[in-house]
Structures are given as C-alpha cells and as structure tokens.
Amino acid sequence: MSAIGMLDLRAEYAELRAEIDQAVLRVLASGHFVLGPEGSALEAELAAMTGAAHAVAVASGTDALHLALRAAGIGPGDDVVVPAFTFIATAEAVTYTGARPIFADIDAASFNATAATLEAALTPATRAVIVVHLYGQCAEMPAIAALCASRGIILIEDCAQAIGADYDGRAAGAWGAFGCFSFYPTKNLGAYGDAGLVTVRDPGDAERVRMLRHHGSRQTYQHEIVGYNSRLDELQAAILRVKLPQLARFNEARRRAAARYRAGLDGSGVVLPAEHGHGLHVYHQFTIRSARRDALRAALGESGIASAVYYPLPVHRQPAYAASVGALELPASDAAAASVLSLPIHPYLREADVDRVCAVLRDAKP
C-alpha cells in the first residue's frame, strides 16, 4: 500500500501548475520583485475576502504578529495574554516587543481560549490579548471581543490556521484591531516559502504596519521610526493570488474529509474534534484525542500513515518560558498536549485513504 502523508503539495502544484508557472514568469519578466503590484493586489483581495478595512502583506506569520503588536504600541512593562496551547510564535512575538506573555488555559473541547480563560489570566498590566483560532475553528469571538472592549484591551487574532473560517458570518481576521495570517507552505493557503499578512481595522494602525515592514519608512530614505525588513516578495504574492480563488473549494474538500473521518471513527473510542456550530471550521488539522495517543500513532506509522502531534508541550512548559512562569498550572492545555493526534487532511485526500486511516485506528483499539 502507498504511504499516506499529512498533506500533498505536489498534487496541488500539479493541478495549478500552468497558472502558477505563468504567474512566476510574469513577475520575472516584470523585473519588479519587492513592494510591487502583485503584493498590492493580494492585499486588496484578502481585505475583500475577510471584510477587513486594510491588509498589509509581510514576510511571515510571526512577523505579522510582531508588527501588529508594535503598531499597537505594545512594549516593555506591558502584559499580553496568549493561549498556552499554541505554536510558540504567538508568545515569541510578544517577547520580541519587550512585553511579557501571560499564558491562558483553553477549552478542552475546542482547543481554543475562551473569554473565561482569558479573563482569568488578565493582570493589571494587560494591554492586549492574542486569541488563536487553533486547527481552523474560530474562538468564541463575540464574548472575547466584548471582554476586551469592556477592559480597554487591544484584541489581536492569530489566524495562521484559520483563513476562510468565520464566527457567525464574520471572518477570522475581522474581529480584532489586527488579524495575523501565515502563508507557510503547509497552511490552507500556502506560499512557496515564508509569507504573512496583517488585516487592520484602523487606517493609522495600517500605516504603522506598512512603515514597520519597510525599515520605518514611508518615503525613500526617510525613516521616521526604527522598523524591520519584512516585505512580502512579488513571487510569493503572485503564487498566493493563483491559489486564493481555490481556497473555498480546498476548504470544502477538507470539510468533506473531516465528515468522513467522523463517520468512520464514530464509536471507535477516540475523542473527535468538536464543532461549535457558529461558523465554518476549515480543518487546517483534524485532531483527535486519546489516552493511548502514542500507541495509535505507532500503529499508523507501521501502516505507512503519517500523523503529527500539535503540540506535545504547551508554551508555558517550553524551556524558553518555563522558568519565567514558575508553577503555573493550566490543566486543559497540559491534558491536550498529552492526548492530541492530528490525522492526514488536505484537499487531495482520497476517500479510500480516510477509510484506511479509520480502519487502522479502529483495529488499534483506542
């Protein structure tokens, strides 16, 4: 039997090759590689798709978070509340500014922080909250937005895994003052290298992000602030523009695969990912839970089936942060890290492959 991978970027390129090659050649022929028409067009298209007022393309998803925080004025002496169960970049971006990340627990069913878990982590110095839409499903944004508004706290969304998702019809990236996207190649909308984007509500904030990504400059060789080199190149922008019109179709294919997993694993003993029913889950990952996670992963591997653990160690347990947080206990985050297992899911996953994954898991007696 052939191996089943977590994703299939070769199949995506095979389908879109003619358009992608044409886009790349168009950029090469133009001789314009940085801050050009492709990037501007991508910004406009993604602002329209998300319903955001402004969009600013940057070099990576991590830079999107960092520059959003900088544009918001976050710095030394400030606290920023982030979920503990996420990729470390969410907290790293806070640390880059000199502010302190404060770790919040998650809801065990959705894997996302909630208004209650975020509120429990607030400190007198909290100036911002970063909410992560983990695995492709939006957090409970109305309640979180209301909490931040009532406390005068800046709301930032980490949408790295949730492009195309929404909560009650309002897109990921359109709830906060900033929405931060990653286009790392494995994402639902992936570039052919690192790439990112910030959606922004306020025009002044958008202008600050644009300056920060370009060495603090609005006019050539005049630098009003100390900025960064975080410009999305034209090649990546052109590739993303080819893929963007396919995003809804690709996300729907992920949802079909997820539905087949649900049917095939019903009654198997694994805990299936919960959908809250308030919007589209775009299934960047299909993540199950089991107390026998490692045994299930071994059984899949023996059958030539890939799987992954996102994430085996919550950020507050990472060596980079553990010493600074002391004896902080976040039980839902710890429990998730000990039990989660992500299964192959992508737009080109065949029904027979899903059925084979389900059969192996059922035979392994979860």
Architecture overview:
The chain is an alpha/beta fold. The chain has 2 domains: 237 residues, Type I PLP-dependent aspartate aminotransferase-like (Major domain) (Aspartate Aminotransferase, domain 2, 3-Layer(aba) Sandwich), CATH 3.40.640.10; 118 residues, Aspartate Aminotransferase, domain 1 (Alpha-Beta Complex). The protein contains 13 helices and 13 strands. The strands form 4 sheets. The protein has a 7-stranded mixed sheet, sandwiched between helices. The protein has a two-stranded antiparallel ribbon with strand order 6-7. 51% of the residues are buried. The model has no long low-confidence stretch (mean pLDDT 97).
Beta percentage is 5-15%
For this structure, the CATH topology of the largest domain is Aspartate Aminotransferase, domain 2
Main sheet properties: 7 strands, mixed
Give the full name of the CATH homologous superfamily of the largest domain: Type I PLP-dependent aspartate aminotransferase-like (Major domain)
The structure class reads alpha/beta
Which architecture of the largest domain per CATH?
3-Layer(aba) Sandwich
The CATH class of the largest domain is identified as Alpha Beta
Detail the poorly predicted runs: none
Helix count from the secondary structure assignment: 13
Cα Rg: 20 Å
